[in-house]
Amino acid sequence: MTITPEQKQAIEEAGQEPVRVEDPETKVPYVIVREEIYRKIRDMVRIEQIDPSLYEVGEFIPLKQ
Prior knowledge:
The chain has two helices and two strands. The chain is an alpha+beta fold.
């Protein structure tokens, strides 16, 4: 998939900022970001995810079922 000339222009005008686009049929918004920015965000989210099995026993709060 490649970007359209209109998208390319919007990306260039936005500089380092993301570009918001909307599906005209569904009205669902999307954000276009450079791949290196996406990868940085993805890596930050992975780092912030905490494995519940690593909690100290005294800090453990069981999930309500």
